[in-house]
TrEMBL record:
Molecular function (Gene Ontology), one example: protein serine/threonine phosphatase activity
Domain PPM-type phosphatase: 45-392
Gene3D superfamilies: PPM-type phosphatase domain (3.60.40.10)
SUPFAM superfamilies: PP2C-like
Protein name: Protein serine threonine phosphatase 2C
One of the Pfam families matching this protein, by short name: PP2C
Organism from which the protein derives: Mycena albidolilacea
Length: 393
């Protein structure tokens, strides 16, 4: 019954919506958009200002040297939105200029271009901080807390430089050029290719990497880079404190601990849980522990032999929803991706593809959608969820 109060699986109270109210409310909250062959949305149903979405995305087309290049990207911010906002503002321009220069020089190496652009943005974030404290750790150690606070908490340029270091973001970029797709991933967002063969069968292919502490390869990489430090990965997290093993920002995991104790812990606004930050500092012995080096995969579109093909880019909120709804084990990207392609290849699918996939992952039925959409809480009950869908054939 519409308006009825019920308890969801986690014991939280929600309001039952019936159709078409549930679909209308989902669309209002997720802000679906369509731009040519691309559909996008971003959802965080909790309305508390402190819980607003930290996801950001890009959907842009460029004409370069009489060719159309398309960029689709998702940035999943964490601990705040400053780093994700900075990526939206800076990374497209860096990529565009690098692409223009490479095409003009006739020396196009897209994987290297993507890796370097992302790493350069991260490096500049750190350099901006170092420029505020040119004397390095020794000079920083001689400053008083009041002097540090006065310098960094100016509610202006300096504050933003510090916040970009304190916060972090994953990066997922699909660069689509003539006959080719390259996907750069840093963190745990997902990109999946769906392709329909000449026989009419759909196949899925994961085009992103899963950079988190639960990935044995990533855990082993970090342990090998920090020999003798058994707690460099602890409880599936870097230093037992952060799930992702690669990200832009998050300089408290990339710099000596004095930068955290003297700068980040004196910054305003600070960390939501400063005690947790102090807890892992004792394990910060030989930084950096987080990497800004992305993995890049390539697809030559004609080689697919496909009659139709599309890309799905998604923040890990969709992976979480998929696990709940489709019975997929936690963090199984290829399995989730296969399901997403299956859903979006349905012959009766209509409307915005990103919204269709989101609604299906939420359980489709009005009551299931309501149980995730209308929860009565001032704290978030589900992760930010962003989806970018685009056709490539």
């Amino acid at each position: 019954m519409a308006g009825e109060k019920k308890q969801n699986a986690h014991g939280a109270t929600y309001t039952v919506l019936t159709e078409p109210e549930a679909s209308a409310e989902l669309a209002r909250c997720a802000h679906p958009q369509s731009n040519g062959v691309t559909d996008t949305l971003s959802l965080q149903p909790c309305t508390a200002p402190s819980e607003r979405s930290e996801d950001r995305f890009i959907d842009a087309d460029w004409r370069i040297a009489d060719q159309i290049w398309r960029i689709k990207a998702i940035f999943d911010g964490h601990a705040g939105h400053s780093t994700a906002d900075h990526l939206v503002a800076t990374l497209p321009g860096v990529l565009h200029d690098a692409l223009v220069a490479a095409l003009a020089a006739g020396s196009l190496d897209v994987p290297e271009l993507l890796r370097k652009a992302i790493a350069d943005v991260d490096e500049q974030i750190g350099k901006d901080l170092f420029d505020l404290f040119p004397g390095g750790p020794e000079a920083l150690a001689s400053m008083t807390d009041d002097d540090v606070a006065a310098l960094i908490n100016d509610d202006g340029v300096n504050s933003e430089k510090v916040l970009r270091c304190m916060r972090g973001s994953t990066v997922l970029v699909a660069l689509i050029g003539p006959d080719n797709v390259w996907v750069a991933s840093l963190g745990d967002c997902q990109c999946v290719l769906g392709a329909k063969t000449a026989s009419g069968e759909w196949h899925s292919r994961l085009l992103s990497s899963n950079h988190n502490g639960a990935n044995p390869a990533e855990a082993e990489r970090i342990h090998s880079e920090h020999p003798g430090e058994s707690e460099s990965v602890l409880k599936n997290g870097v230093l037992g404190a952060i799930a992702v093993t690669r990200a832009v920002g998050d300089f408290l995991f990339k710099l000596p601990k004095i930068y955290t104790t003297r700068i980040f812990l004196n910054a305003k606004p600070g960390f939501r849980f400063p005690s947790k930050v102090k807890d892992f500092l004792g394990r910060n012995l030989t930084p950096p522990y987080l990497s800004a080096q992305s993995d890049v995969q390539h697809v030559h579109i004609p080689s697919l032999g496909a009659s139709e093909a599309f890309l799905i880019l998604a923040s890990d909120g969709l992976t979480d929803l998929s696990g709940e709804t489709y019975g997929i084990g936690y963090r199984e990207p290829s399995v989730a991706g296969k399901k997403w392609v299956e859903v979006l290849s349905r012959e009766d699918r209509t409307g915005n593809a990103a919204l269709y996939l989101l609604k299906d992952a939420m359980g489709w039925e009005a009551d299931a959608v309501s149980s995730l959409l209308t929860v009565e809480s001032e704290e978030r009950w589900m992760d930010d969820t962003t989806i970018v869908f685009t056709k490539i054939i």
